[in-house]
Design a protein that fits this description.
The structure holds 2 protein chains of 2 kinds. In chain A, the strands form 4 sheets. Chain A has a 5-stranded mixed β-barrel with strand order 8-9-10-12-11. A 4-stranded mixed sheet of chain A has the order 1-6-7-3, with no helix packed on it. Chain A folds into 3 domains: 8-53, OB fold (Dihydrolipoamide Acetyltransferase, E2P); 65-130, Beta Barrel (OB fold (Dihydrolipoamide Acetyltransferase, E2P)), CATH 2.40.50.140; 143-225, K Homology domain, type 1 (Ribosomal Protein S8, Chain: A, domain 1). Helix content of chain A is 21%, strand content 32%. Chain A is flat and about 60 Å long. By secondary structure, chain A is an alpha+beta fold. Chain B has one domain (23-239): Ribosomal Protein S5, domain 2 (2-Layer Sandwich). Chain B has helices spanning 93-107, 133-147, 174-179, 206-239, and strands spanning 9-10, 13-14, 26-30, 38-44, 47-58, 71-78, 118-128, 157-164, 167-170, 182-189, 194-198, 201-202. In chain B, strand 8 (157-164) and strand 9 form a beta hairpin. The chains are: A alpha+beta, B alpha+beta. The A-B interface holds A 6, 8, 10-12, 26, 28, 30, 35, 37-40, 53-57, 85-87, 124-125, 150, 203-208 and B 37-38, 55-58, 67, 111, 115-118, 146-155, 190-191, 228, 231-232, 235-236, 238-242.
């Protein structure tokens, strides 16, 4: 891994020229020049210049696993808040139960949480979600916390390294939704441990070697308990 | 409204000791409110302004939604204690006008097509007022929008110029605004130099107007540097935790 310094950019900052580079995510082009459109960190991959946001709303992408909170049970579907600018639609044909017309609230009611997958996002940004995938169900028990959606990749880690460390040392069940909601289930002491570790990851998300630091931290704590 | 008792110039300097093209001291803090998506606290001379940005989120009521782009709801509000005599709280003619022109200025630089049917709410709260609050409010709103991670083409900035006792000056203070001849607030997109807002109160000749506009644009560029510095410093600090 190259220890190149991470470069923070602000909107309207000049990043390059369309002759040498290609404009990727988080950028816009004006008169042959590439500018950043958001506050973020520059990522130059081959020809592309991308800007990865530091803050901002969750932007739903097809195939993402998210945690949603039911807002409104309707006759043949539910409106689910997934932390995006718009509520997502969950149709009765997308759930594993046989729901009679008009009886949606017997299965999922206002305030219930579900683990779901983003089934489709159309050009008008209408979002559909589904429960028809493995390990997707209505959440019972546990705790849901909110983090900045842009920090979710750090909490999961490279190929899930961070999250598997968390699971290993705390013996909690954890599900991280791409929309910045995290479900944690376990005994109180371990849940507290997960909570403060996640807070630490969030506050130091821009620094290097975080996974190793978190692992040694958790290791020390477990030894102290023993 | 000429008042002969007040001298706005003393020994070639302005009433608060500034030269003609000097700004009042500016302090910008980023991300101070935890519940807002983006926020900014700005002190500009005696002005103290807090801005909170929420969104993009679904626009309510639904008839305000635009199927193609997001709408911007800027709300400028002066606190009852922000001026010397208590201001009657709530929206009035003046604050509704400022809310409208601020919304329209922000619409020009935000990439609203990315969020159809959504709304971006910008709350500008004036805690202490001392001339030039619309400029200060718009400047702070620009920083708060960047902090909220909302895509935009530029960080908007605003600054005023004016005429007092026949001389053109930058960034009018309280007495200068009250007893001066003209006030010209300008909002700018500093990268392209596009003007986002231009209002005038009082009288200027065409020649004076050109000079005053030039002066205000230079002032905007100076404030813009302060904005950018404030945003970067806040997030550089996060980088250096190790």
């Amino acid at each position: 891994m190259t220890q190149e310094k991470r470069e923070i950019v602000i909107p309207s900052q000049l990043l390059g020229d369309t002759k040498q580079n290609k404009a990727g995510r988080g950028t816009f082009v004006e008169q042959g020049k590439i500018y950043s459109e958001i506050l973020g960190i520059v990522n130059r991959k081959s020809d592309f210049i991308n800007v990865i946001p530091i803050k901002g709303r969750y932007d739903p992408i097809e195939g993402d696993f998210v945690i949603g909170i039911v807002e409104d049970p309707m006759a043949s579907s539910w409106l689910v808040d997934i932390n995006a600018p718009y509520p997502a639609l969950l149709h009765v044909s997308e759930v594993p139960w046989d729901v009679e017309f008009g009886e949606t609230d017997r299965y999922l009611n206002h305030g219930d949480s579900v683990m779901a997958k983003v089934a489709s996002v159309d050009i008008n940004r209408k979002v559909n979600i589904t429960l028809k995938d493995r390990n997707l169900y209505k959440i019972k028990g546990g705790l849901i916390i909110n983090v900045e959606p842009s920090k979710v990749p750090r909490i999961i880690g490279k190929k899930g390294s961070m999250i598997s460390i968390l699971k290993k040392y705390t013996r909690c069940r954890i599900f991280v939704g791409q929309n910045g909601r995290i479900w944690i289930d376990g005994d109180d002491e371990n849940v507290a441990k997960v909570l403060h570790t996640i807070k630490k990851i969030e506050s130091e998300s821009l620094s290097y070697g975080l996974t190793n630091r978190i692992e040694s931290l958790l290791k020390n704590e477990t030894q102290e308990v023993q | 409204m000429k008042n002969d008792d007040i001298k706005l110039f003393q020994d070639g300097k302005r009433i608060d000791g500034r030269t003609n093209d000097e700004l009042r001291p500016i302090k910008i803090e980023v991300g101070i409110l935890h519940r807002a998506d983006g926020s900014c606290y700005l002190e500009w001379g005696g002005n103290k302004i807090m801005v909170a940005v929420y969104g993009p989120r679904e626009a309510v009521p639904r008839h305000t939604q635009n199927q193609l782009r997001a709408i911007v709801n800027a709300r400028y509000n002066m606190a009852a204690f922000s001026v010397e005599d208590r201001k009657r709280p709530g929206p009035d003619r003046r604050s509704r006008e400022i809310s409208k022109v601020t919304s329209e200025a922000l619409e020009k630089i935000l990439l609203l097509e990315k969020f159809p049917r959504a709304a971006i709410d910008v709350n500008i709260e004036v805690l202490n007022a001392e001339a030039g609050t619309r400029c200060a409010g718009l400047t702070a709103a620009g920083v708060a929008l960047a902090d909220a991670g909302i895509p935009m083409k530029d960080i908007p900035v605003a600054c005023a110029a004016g005429k007092i006792e026949g001389q053109l000056v930058l960034d009018l203070g309280k007495e200068e605004d009250n007893y001066g001849d003209a006030d010209l607030p300008v909002a700018l997109s500093p990268r392209t130099g596009e003007i986002l807002l231009l209002q005038m109160d009082g009288h200027l000749t065409i020649d004076e107007f050109d000079k005053a506009l030039d002066m205000a644009i230079k002032g905007c560029q100076k404030v813009s540097e302060l904005q950018k510095k404030a945003i970067i410093e806040k997030y550089i600090a996060e980088l250096e935790v190790e």
